[in-house]
Design brief:
single chain, 400 residues, alpha/beta, Immunoglobulin-like, TIM Barrel, 6-stranded parallel β-sheet, 4-stranded mixed β-sheet, 18 strands, 38% helix, disordered C terminus, binds zinc ion
Length: 400
């Protein structure tokens, strides 16, 4: 019986409905696929759905961002031949907001497979550099000193940094003044005045004696490197109207050479000692590409010899003035420290002589004589080589 029972049970087992199992599996599969498809639609993972869907703006933006992200990660740079050397040179350590600067970027080997650089500014976004190396200070970057860093993106680990001082943008519609210093440099006083100008992001013009430039070329170089204008005040401070021929020529040429030796650049401005010029002097000066720049406001610092007096006189400056001071005197140091921030607080832009003329649309041609710019009359208060018999005669006694 038992065996028959066993025998009975056995055939029952073989009758298990396999077809039912397969059908069940297929149903489950179909259901799972359906749920998955619905889930996908709800999450929004399909590109087709996003494009056809009538989404609101926010969603569209997110999706565009996602797509862009995917695209950038797809592009892989060819780093097979990385850089071995990278140099980045800025033509100057300063710039004005509103100006741009072309950087000199070099790398080795010349056929490096990925020359793309990643630029960063120590103050995020204040200064940018384009792909072809054009540096652009963005709005609001004036009165900032930043460190710019270029990093290779080819895995070489190479990088280069430099510091950049950004002067405020010049607004030609606002008042501006050109502070000028004669007779220097004198390291003891000139450097402290340069510190004050640098701290305030202010510019000035230094009319150096060729002789002193020869003694202290590093101070003249510092003036130049800070973006100050460097002009000549002759070689040995002789009254040019008393010279002629070779002697006159030598006073000019030796001073131009001394300044070029210190800065690497020839000056374009000359401040004649005692403001003394005549037709002969203007012609000789013009032959060296120099323009004669006298002044419209004399602080008479050499006469008063007091910081308070120099300060008070300088604060009388009005728009377009060219102010005469001397950077060789100790008593002027405190005056400079005070009037630089105070003039700026009163709304004056402290600019170089060339910047003043350029921003007022006036020219400084070789062999001409100037005293100040005039925003209302093109040539007011100015004398040119053509109509000057001896314009210096009236100014001969006004300067030390
Ligand atoms: Zn002088």
């Amino acid at each position: 019986m038992a065996s028959s029972r066993r025998a009975d049970k056995a055939p029952k087992k073989t009758k298990v409905p396999i077809g039912k199992y397969i059908l069940g599996a297929v149903v489950i599969c179909v259901l799972l696929c359906g749920i998955f498809a619905i889930g996908k639609r709800l999450i929004g993972g399909s590109g087709k759905t996003e494009q056809t869907g009538n989404n609101n703006g926010k969603e569209s933006q997110t999706q565009t961002g996602k797509a862009a992200e995917e695209k950038t990660t797809e592009v892989k740079a060819d780093n097979s031949n990385p850089m071995t050397k990278l140099t980045v040179k800025a033509p100057a350590g300063y710039l004005r907001e509103g100006e741009t600067m072309q950087l000199d970027i070099k790398y080795e080997p010349k056929d490096a497979s990925n020359p793309t650089l990643k630029w960063t500014c120590s103050e995020d976004g204040l200064v940018t550099v384009s792909e072809d190396g054009e540096l652009v200070p963005e709005e609001g970057s004036g009165k900032h000193t930043v460190t710019m860093t270029a990093e290779a993106t080819d895995g070489s680990g190479l990088s280069q940094s430099f510091e950049l001082m950004i002067y405020p943008k010049i607004d030609p519609s606002q008042p501006m003044v050109a502070i000028t210093f004669d007779d220097g440099p004198n390291p003891d006083t000139t450097n402290v005045m340069l510190d004050a100008l640098e701290e305030n992001y202010a510019k000035a013009t230094f009319f150096c004696l060729g002789q002193n430039a020869g003694y202290y070329p590093e101070v003249v170089k510092r003036e130049y490197d800070l973006g100050m204008e460097v002009g000549t005040h002759t070689f040995s401070h002789v009254q040019l109207t008393k010279l002629s021929g070779d002697a006159l020529d030598e006073e000019i040429s030796k001073s131009v050479d001394a300044i070029k030796e210190a800065t690497g650049v020839k000056p374009v401005l000359m401040r004649p000692p005692y403001g003394a010029v005549n037709k002969t002097v203007l012609k000789a000066v013009g032959g060296y590409g120099l323009c004669c720049m006298n002044w419209s406001l004399d602080t008479e610092d050499w006469k008063t010899k007091k910081a308070d007096a120099t300060y008070a006189e300088t604060m009388k400056a009005v728009d377009g003035d060219v102010v005469l001071l001397h950077d060789i005197h100790e008593y002027n140091v405190d005056a400079v420290k005070r009037f630089v921030p105070d003039l700026m607080a009163q709304g004056f832009q402290l600019v170089t002589v060339s910047e003043l003329y350029k921003n007022r649309g006036e020219t400084l041609d070789p062999g001409t004589l100037h005293f100040r710019t005039d925003p209302t009359t093109e040539s007011a208060g100015e004398t040119t080589a053509a109509d000057a018999d001896d314009p210096g005669a009236q100014a001969e006694t006004t300067e030390e």
